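User: tokens in, sequence out, please.
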């Protein structure tokens, strides 16, 4: 299971002046690589206020200087953990490129207007799906879920506007550090981390 990575070095001189521009370069390369099926899939880790962690995959829907945005149910496990403890970590596992990007920061909810604008771009079926269950709650059966979906289909047939569920919306992760990890042979990996310092970013190299 051990792979020797044949990759080019990542030096401080190669890095963009700020991490979102650097992320954008790597994200483009990832998106162009057919070996990576969902380049925008990322692992979101949250924790309860007493420090019990949990992780799951979500899709990155937007990023810019303000942060990284995904959409979810605010009453889900992750949603409730983030309400109680906004510290969050994101991990992009781009294994075929021997790369990972790790973001740490704080979660803030997007504005309702941003949520509504994104919801409107989703296919009708996934709009209904957002209503179909209270994410993370225990349910009795799959039939229960399907019955609820069918009920919603009758209520909001294709072409009818589906309202945005009140408990559904965007989460923006405002980064305080972003690490770019490039794997190399013999465990001599590059790890360059941008750390926020007021209005600018400091770059440091970490031991692999
Ligand atoms: C590839 C992939 C993408 C996913 N994207 C999302 C997403 O964008 N939003 C979301 O709420 N759940 C998404 N999920 C489901 C989550 O992994 C998770 O099951 C769900 O959000 C409930 O998580 P929680 O109970 O820890 O809150 C995705 C799962 C996979 C495998």
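Assistant: Sequence out:
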């Amino acid at each position: 299971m051990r792979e020797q990575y044949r990759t080019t070095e990542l030096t401080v001189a190669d890095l963009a002046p700020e991490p979102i521009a650097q992320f954008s370069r790597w994200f483009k390369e990832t998106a162009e690589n057919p070996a990576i099926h969902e380049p925008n899939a990322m692992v979101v880790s949250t924790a309860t206020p007493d420090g019990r962690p949990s992780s799951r995959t979500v899709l990155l829907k937007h990023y810019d200087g303000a942060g990284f945005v995904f959409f979810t149910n605010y009453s889900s496990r992750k949603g409730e953990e983030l309400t109680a403890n906004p510290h969050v970590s994101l991990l992009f596992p781009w294994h075929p490129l021997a790369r990972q990007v790790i973001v740490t920061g704080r979660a803030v909810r997007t504005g309702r207007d941003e949520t509504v604008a994104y919801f409107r771009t989703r296919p009708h079926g996934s709009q209904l799906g957002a209503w179909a269950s209270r994410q993370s709650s225990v349910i009795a059966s799959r039939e229960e879920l399907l019955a609820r979906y069918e009920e919603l289909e009758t209520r909001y047939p294709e072409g009818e506007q589906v309202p945005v569920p009140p408990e559904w919306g965007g989460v923006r992760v405002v980064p305080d550090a972003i690490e770019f990890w490039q794997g190399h042979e013999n465990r001599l990996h590059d790890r360059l981390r941008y750390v926020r310092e007021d209005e600018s970013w400091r770059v440091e190299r970490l031991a692999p």
